[in-house]
Amino acid sequence: MSYTEALERTDPLRSGHLAPGSDEERQALDRFADFIAEMTSASMREKVQQVYAADAYFNDTLKELVGAAAIEDYMAHSMEATESVRAVVDDISSSGGDYYVRWTMDIRFKNYNDGKVARSVGISHLRFDGDGKIVLHRDYWDAAGGLYEYLPVVGGLIRWIKGRL
Fold first, then answer.
1. pLDDT tens digit sequence for 80-92
2. Please, what CATH class does the domain formed by 3-164 belong to?
3. Is 119 within 8 Å of 35 (Cβ atoms)?
4. 122 and 141 in contact (C-beta within 8 Å)?
């Protein structure tokens, strides 16, 4: 499923959404903030099913998935390559059932960047179902500066290109 198809399938005007300012809305946003606050392989296995709807759409610019089970496997596996992943929600905007969550994420990779923290800033576009579970999650972030720049060979090439601009 593409992002465009997911947007149509999860249109808040057709499928409903959380009432603005409601306790359910606050709880759903708090659940997401808690979910990304400290991510480990174990926490992904524990929390994904609580945060995402069974048929949720997910795209983090690296991977596009459908279904909470696929999201859980991907996220748990991804966390295995890290020492730590922590994110803080910096701001939330909303419009008609769409939520835009700006965050700052610090990642410490096991085998890259000499144990230093890699910082990435991004925005997640979220939609929730009536139960407060995520049905659409699309991330926008600087993958070059937040991830690729810290990889061997690729990172050197990206830093060289940035220096030439």
1. 988 899 999 999 9
2. alpha beta
3. no
4. yes
